Amino acid sequence: MQPSIPTTLIAFIGLATALPLDARAPGDVTFCTGENYTGECTTLSVPFYECQKVPAEFAGNVGSFKVDAGAYCRITYTADTCTPHGDAFIWPDTNAPTLHHYVDVQGNVVDAGASLTSFLCQVCTACEA
Fold first, then answer.
1. Which CATH superfamily groups domain 23-123?
2. What is the structure's pLDDT at 69?
């Protein structure tokens, strides 16, 4: 007995949804010059697990940074390029709407947007927007 077309389609759909997230297309990140995603904005698709430089047009002026669901990013603002742990984690449920008035892990308010140099995004299967 040959499988029916619906049975075959269901098997392929199950296979496709079982693929790991790192096999998907790269995630999106959004940069804006203004806080709360205002001003000039651009959205980029970036590969996971690769250090990325801040786009030249945003160097020294990132007011807000957003990452899509299914990933999180580590941003670096105290070094010229990505560091092993980054300076801050940006999660899709909170993102970073105020980088010019960012509260760091010690509770200090810093202008991370003026010195943001790079970021590295990675898969997060539990990250929701």
1. Crystallins (2.60.20.10)
2. 87
Residue 28: phi and psi, rounded to 5, are -105, 140
Say what the pTM is.
0.76
CB atoms within 10 A of CB 78: 14
How many whole angstroms separate alpha carbon 60 and alpha carbon 113?
6
Mean pLDDT calculated for residue range 107-112: 95
pLDDT digits (tens, 9 = 90+) for 41-61: 999 999 999 999 999 999 999
Q: Where in the chain are the domains? A: 23-123
- With 0-12 / 13-18 / 19 or more C-beta atoms within 10 angstroms meaning exposed / middle / buried, residue 19 is exposed
Q: Go through 23-41 and write b for each residue having 16 or more CB atoms within 10 A of its CB, e for each that does not.
A: eeeebbbebbbbbeeeeee
